[in-house]
Design goal:
It is built from 9 helices and 11 strands. By secondary structure, it is an alpha+beta fold. The relative contact order is 0.10. Bound molecules: zinc ion (3 copies). One zinc ion binds next to β10.
């Protein structure tokens, strides 16, 4: 998996500053992965739209979750996106011990109380009910989807990447070839629901860009999904798949391949 950035933004920034060009706070995306926070220490900033940590002078939006949890007994801890009544209550209580962790990534680490506080990796945390009531727009989102939004928002603020030639839909010129060979490599099988379609029905299989960047065709960023799973992967996709032609495609797919799943 090649994670090397195309170029180092810090180097670019220094160069621009050297040339007398003012560079704002544009910084590359950096992950905040399961970092301990003391709510009372003042390193967190709570605003109307979220929770921010100070990362060496850069404000980064994060979510919070309980650092230690009985994963077997209670399932996944909930994640918080704002100063909800649960967090408020915690701030009022006079305990200044780290009980929460901050993150902006898909998979986080939780100390499993049911297993000798072993660090375990958890993703798709459910949203805190009180946060959902306060920030309604996140109500159907799990922490992994929320992390994707944060990542996309951060990259939107970054300096423009070198231009890649794209078509009207934002895909690279070689996308058709990449997409069909990726679907073939996955035997036309959905990575979510595991349904397999005939190669003749490859139109029912899509290739999804996990980080939302349609020009990022590294295979680590791609996912082979059936139209149904793809249409439900996040709120943007739910919206994009609500056109009559997309609905029809999903209907045809379900009629042919999802018969056994129907509730009758
Ligand atoms: Zn909350
Ligand atoms: Zn599927
Ligand atoms: Zn997609």
């Amino acid at each position: 998996m090649d994670e090397t950035p195309i170029y180092d933004f810090r180097g670019l920034k220094a160069l621009l500053q050297h040339k007398g060009i003012r560079v704002g706070k544009a910084e590359p995306w950096r992950e905040i992965n399961s970092e301990e926070v003391r709510l009372k220490e003042g390193k967190l900033e709570f605003t109307d739209d979220g929770i921010y940590v100070d990362d060496n002078g850069i404000k980064r939006q994060v979510f919070l979750y309980k650092r230690r949890y009985k994963l077997q007994q209670y399932g996944k801890p909930r994640y918080h996106v704002c100063k909800c009544s649960t967090i408020e209550e915690f701030l009022v209580n006079d305990r200044d011990i780290p009980e929460y962790r901050s993150a902006n990534v898909d998979t986080v680490k939780v100390l499993n109380w049911d297993n000798f506080n072993k660090e375990e990796e958890v993703s798709n945390l459910p949203l805190c009910k009180n946060c959902a009531a306060k920030l309604y727009k996140y109500r159907n989102m799990d922490s992994s989807e929320f992390a994707e939004i944060l990542r996309n928002a951060a990259s939107a603020k970054e300096p423009p990447k070198p231009k890649v030639e794209v078509d009207v839909n934002g895909y690279t010129k070689d996308w058709q070839i990449i997409s069909s060979s990726f679907r073939e490599k996955h035997n036309y099988t959905c990575e979510k629901c595991k349904v397999q379609v005939s190669p003749l029905d490859s139109a029912f299989m899509n290739v999804h860009h996990k980080n939302g960047d349609k020009t990022d065709n590294r295979s680590s960023n791609l996912q082979c999904l059936c139209v149904k799973c793809h249409s439900e992967i996040n709120p943007t996709h739910i919206h994009n798949f609500s056109t009559p032609s997309k609905r029809l495609l999903i209907k045809l797919f379900e009629e042919k391949y999802k018969k056994n799943d129907l509730p009758f």
